Amino acid sequence: MSKDIIARLQILKLYKQLEEKDRTLSALVERIVENVGPLLTRIPESMPDFTLHDPNHSAKVAENMGKIIPDAVLSKLNAIELTLLLLSAYLHDIGMTSSHDEKEEIIQDSEDFKTLFRSDVDKRNKFEYYRVIADHRAATFIEDQVFMDYLRQNHVRRSADFIRKNLGEGRLEVSFHGIPFWDLLIDICDAHGAPVEVLRNSDRWPRHTLIGENIINVQYLALVLRLADILDLDAERTPRMIYEFVNPKDPVSILEWKKHRSVIGHSIGPKTVLFEARCSSPEVERALKQFLTWIELERKGTMALLESYKDEIATRYYLELKEEVQTDRIKTNGSYLSNDLKFEIDYKRVLDLLIGERFYKNPVVAIRELLQNSVDAIRIRQKIYEGRPENFIPMIRVTLKDAVLTVEDNGVGMSEEIFRNYFLQVGKSYYSSREFYRKYAGVDVASEFGIGVLSCFMLAYSMEVESRRVADNQLEVHNPIRFEIPTAYGYLIQRKSERGDFGTRISLKLKDEALFQKYSLLDIIKEIIPDPPFPISVVGKVEKVFQKLPPLDFCEVPTPYYMEFLQSQSDKSYFREKNNFFYLKIDLANAKNSLLRDIEGFIILHNDRTNSGWIAQRSFKIGYPVSDEDFHILKPENLKLLPEWMSAYYNINLTRSACLTISPDRTDVIADDKLHTLRAKLTTEVMGRIEAHLLEIQSSSSRTDYVNYLKIICNTQNGFLVFFDFKQIASSSLIFLSKFLLVLAMTPEGKVTYLVVNELFKYSRLGIVVSARKPFVIDNMRQFCVQENFAIVIPNGLSSYTGTSLRHSLRALFEANNRFLLDNAITIVDALPDFQFELLVYDRVVRKSRIVLLEQEELDIFCLLENFSFRISINKQHPIFTDLNKQGREVQDLIKILGKRISKVMVDSVQRTYSETEHFLEVTSHAMTKSNEKNVYPFFAGIFKRDPGLLEIINSEIESFFETAKAKKLLSSKEDKIRKLTTKDFLPYWSEL
Question: Which of the listed residues 134, 367, 807, 866 has the most CB atoms within 10 Å of its CB?
Answer without folding.
Answer: 367
